[in-house]
Amino acid sequence: MGFLSSLGDHAGFIAASYLVTFAVVAALIVWIRIDGAAQKRELDVLQKRGFRRRADIGVDVDDDADDEETAP
């Protein structure tokens, strides 16, 4: 007895659902890798033009400090 036949009448739907889910997850992984490479290239271009990351220049971003000053 095969695996699909053991799933009963809905075997086709179940197999198709797994296939679509696998395809979507694989597409997301590929998209994230491509976008990550593009973001890295853009960051390298900006750094070559003289822009630096905030962490590299020691800028402290504290959004909560503004809220405390305006509180009643």
Q: What does this 3D model show about the protein?
A:
The protein contains three helices and no strands. With 72 residues, it is an all-alpha fold. It starts with 10 loop residues before the first helix and ends with a helix. It has helices at residues 11-48, 54-57, 64-70. The mean pLDDT is 82. It is rod-shaped. It has a domain at 19-55.
Summarize the structure.
With 72 residues, this protein is mostly helical. The protein has helices at 11-48, 54-57, 64-70.
Largest sheet: number of strands, sense, barrel closure: none
**Tally of contiguous helical segments:** 3
- Structure summary, number of beta strands: 0
SSE series? HHH
Overall body shape? rod-shaped
Strand percentage lies at under 5%
Mean pLDDT across the residues is 82
SSE layout and pairings?
Layout: H1 11-48, H2 54-57, H3 64-70
Provide tags for this entry.
single chain; 0% strand; 3 helices; 68% helix; 72 residues; mainly alpha
